[in-house]
Design a protein that fits this description.
By secondary structure, this protein is an alpha+beta fold. The protein has 20 helices and 26 strands. The protein folds into three domains: about 300 residues, Beta-lactamase (3-Layer(aba) Sandwich), CATH 3.40.710.10; about 150 residues, STAS domain (Transcription Regulator spoIIAA), CATH 3.30.750.24; about 140 residues, Jelly Rolls (Sandwich), CATH 2.60.120.10.
Length: about 625
């Protein structure tokens, strides 16, 4: 079973796209059997070479893990960045840089090579530098320093880590090369304590037990400005994260570091137990465990997996990125924003009851792995309590391969399988055309994804679905006067008088036909029996194109402001579909008003009430969209 962690809870995965990708990647690399398990430390030689786990932890506390992700192993050299981080926290930058340098060596991790000119180890990622850093754990005795070391690594992991005593003894008994390094440094005053006391801390540091999930969280803590994303505890000061990642980038993969920086381009660290971590600042931490090593001492599958993840998701350090937090621009529901389609009072009442279950998520910026993963997670979360989720991409500039991969993976079923997933502002010929082609025809949860050119189109579609579910409309039947919004609240006798005097005329318009022209005198108003019409204004600021103000449907009127204003038309009205209307003479209704002022007053009050409701809804939308 695939598992994810949210907060501190381990929960079954909903077959999210990240886990699916990791499962596929692991399956493709399982057949790789190159390399050998480390044998120079006898206890490490007992590792099962078939074991293979991949984990990704995000900076907001989710962990995706596949394979042998719970298998414990010793952290080995992957402890070095975290020990280095703690040294900065305890002693400050100047003191640490005085103790150990930051220059790559181009040599193997256990080379006996020191910088004689600076009288220090070259960097903290090789054994010599790591031994010097181990001396910097606070405490007057090895026992106190070991306790400080264990606490520091545990804060990064988000749980109390244990020691593998058998590996510690094996390392201590066979670590003659490390002893040679330590005694050479003691001879040059690069370390101040007795070598055996320093080595005891170092050997125990390398023998701490972790699993692949732990390492992903530790790496994500570095990605998250030093804050553990599961516990929220600061594992190190944010000001020193840059120092740690810089050295990891240039020195973390030993004498393979240059090739790694070129091909993979992610700050990383490997360990001879077969683990590799990689850090994408602000986004994720990656961890791989596979014991077979190459000639450099790096996990064969670990290197291959990182190379694939970097390439597939565009994670190379020199691909420009922004913070993942910024992808969520705004979140609204159907109570705060409506389509431009004007509704009857009965329809508005239905939408008032159901609109809270419509969720609109406005995304922004560039979509890549970190932002797309966060967006996917948010969509899945709000879908649990929504009937419809509309994701609007009006402010999204681009989507790379990683985003396409993640956004395509909505086939998992959320807690609410009936939720409809809709995307808007993904134009056929726009910058997100590739995303439209990927999403078209795929499932969003249990139903096919729908795509609309604009948010208003998406909202109108959702509202129509809700209205049909609660009150199916009969487009075929003719309207009675009582069904017309302008004439609501009139009694039977009043309606009878109105029908005799006004005599509405049934009129048909073709789709696209202009019914009312801006600037003409308002002599007639219309009530829609079947179809819809668009109220539009010409826009000087948009290349002469018209801008839609509203869409009018069955039983609603347009052109009726002439009853109040008596002026020329302020907008044009165009038939959106084949349109059947009642045409009513403004003059005849005014004449009726002179004869029956109390009835006419009711009609005018209906107009004013409807306008007030429309303006209220428009103001709510404007307030909701204000930034």
């Amino acid at each position: 079973m695939l598992l994810t962690i949210e907060g501190n809870q381990l929960v079954p995965s909903q077959e999210d796209p990240v886990s699916r990708y990791l499962t596929r990647l692991r399956g493709e690399l399982m057949s790789v059997d190159a390399g050998e398990v480390a044998s120079y430390i006898p206890e490490l030689a007992r590792a099962d070479p078939r074991q293979f786990a991949i984990a990704i932890a995000t900076t907001d506390g989710r962990v995706f893990a596949v394979g042998d992700a719970s298998q414990l192993f010793t952290i080995q050299s992957v402890s070095k960045p975290f020990a280095y981080a703690h040294a900065f926290a305890c002693h400050g930058r100047a003191a640490v840089l005085d103790k150990v340098g930051v220059e790559p060596t181009g040599e193997a991790f256990n080379s006996i090579v020191l910088d004689d000119a600076a009288n220090q180890p070259y960097n903290p990622m090789v054994n010599a530098g790591a031994i010097a850093v181990s001396e910097l754990f606070p405490g007057d005795t090895p026992k106190q320093r070991i306790s400080a070391m264990r606490s520091a690594l545990s804060r990064f992991a988000g749980r109390d880590l244990d020691l593998d005593e058998s590996v510690y003894r094996s390392e201590s008994e066979t670590g003659h090369r490390n002893r040679a390094i330590a005694y050479l440094m003691r001879n040059s005053n690069m370390i101040g304590n007795e070598p055996e006391a320093v080595l005891e801390v170092y050997f125990r540091q390398c023998s701490m037990l972790v699993n692949c999930r732990d390492l992903a969280v530790m790496a994500a803590s570095l990605a998250n400005d030093g804050v553990n994303p599961l516990t929220g505890e600061a594992a190190m000061p944010a000001e020193f994260v840059q120092d740690v990642l810089s050295v990891m980038h240039s020195c973390g993969m030993y004498d393979y570091a240059g090739q790694w920086a070129y091909e993979v381009g992610i700050p990383a660290k490997s360990g001879v137990s077969g683990c590799v971590i990689a850090v994408i600042p602000g986004q994720i931490g990656i961890a791989i465990y596979s014991p077979r090593l190459d000639s450099y001492g790096n996990s064969v599958r670990g290197v291959m997996a990182c190379r694939r993840i970097s390439a597939d998701f565009g994670l190379h350090a020199f691909c420009s990125r922004t913070g993942v937090e910024s992808v969520l621009r705004h979140e609204l529901n159907g109570l705060r924003i409506r389509s431009k389609r004007l509704r009857t009072p009965a329809e508005r009442a239905i939408l008032d009851r159901s609109g809270g279950a419509i969720c609109i998520i406005e995304a922004q910026g560039r979509l890549y792995f970190g932002t797309a993963e966060r967006l996917v997670h948010r969509i899945r979360k709000v879908a649990a309590n929504a009937t419809h989720v509309i994701v609007d991409f009006r402010h999204v500039q681009s989507a790379d391969r990683a985003a396409l991969c993640l956004l395509q993976g909505f086939s998992g079923v959320p807690e609410n399988p009936n939720c409809q997933l809709i995307f808007s502002h993904i134009l056929v010929n726009g910058p997100l055309a590739n995303l439209r082609s990927v999403l078209a025809g795929t499932k969003g949860f249990s139903r096919p994804i729908q795509i609309f050119d604009g948010l208003d189109d998406a909202l109108e579609h959702v509202e129509a679905e809700i209205l049909y579910l609660h009150a199916p409309a009969s487009e075929e039947s003719m309207l009675t006067l009582q069904e017309i919004v302008l004439f609501q609240n009139l009694d039977t006798e009043e309606l009878s008088l109105l029908s005799l005097s006004v005599a509405p005329k049934l009129t048909t318009f073709e789709s696209g036909q202009i019914i009312i022209k801006k600037g003409e005198l308002g002599k007639t108003f219309f009530v829609i029996v079947r179809g819809s019409a668009s109220v539009e204004l010409p826009s000087i600021g948009h290349g002469g194109r018209t801008v839609q103000i509203a869409s009018v449907g069955r039983s609603l009127a347009f052109g009726h402001m002439a009853l109040i204003e008596g002026r020329t038309r302020g907008a044009q009205v165009v038939a959106e579909t084949e349109l059947v209307c009642y045409a009513i003479s403004v003059e005849s209704l005014r004449t009726f008003g002179l004869e029956h002022p109390s009835i006419y007053a009711k009609i005018l009050m209906n107009i004013i009430s409807d306008l007030a409701d429309t303006l209220h809804a428009a103001n709510e939308t404007i307030r909701a969209l204000e930034r």
